Amino acid sequence: MTCQICGAWLPVGAMFCGECGSSRTATVQSRKRPDPRPNDTTIIARLPRPTVIISVPIPAVVPVPVRAAAVVTAVPSPADAAAPIAALPTHATFVLNFSAGQRVSVHGSGLIGRKPLPQPDEIFDALIRVADADRSVSKTHLEFGQHDGEFWVSDRVSGNGTVIRRPGEAAEQLEPGRRYVLPRGTRVEIADHSFSVA
């Protein structure tokens, strides 16, 4: 008899392969572990996509070439050292009231999901976890932040998408990767859950 994994010869009565350590009854198919990711999010019915997208334009940063001769190093004078330093811009505080009863005050950027996890090169002020036993909310479902004191959200290519309902307007499905400015009073639906911005 030979091992079904590495093909080595097995003596009679052997329980394990002496070459690869596999069980005598192991097969290539039985050694494969199921990948939990494809079934990670339960897909629910989606709203049709709107034809008009309203989003916040993200300004492109254009690099400006600098010549070596034009670079000047400024040396602070003693009078400048005593001058007050301009304060950094502060963010407004927004309160997110979730349908499950959770209430979170946010003042910067963050991620919302079942197990929100930033990419290695990303830094956020808050990671908000949504308890969802049915797994309709993606692990990292939504990103939020501020632009000129206004609150915005962006869908992170979630399985069930994100729908916003601004006060007095029709429901709108978000296009993944675009930022949408939300006035206070907007309801944001993330799969089977939702939150309002106050």
TrEMBL record:
Any Pfam family the entry gives: FHA
Domain of life of the source: Bacteria
Keyword Phosphoprotein assigned: yes
UniProt keyword terms in alphabetical order: Phosphoprotein
Residue span, FHA domain: 110-164
Protein name: FHA domain-containing protein
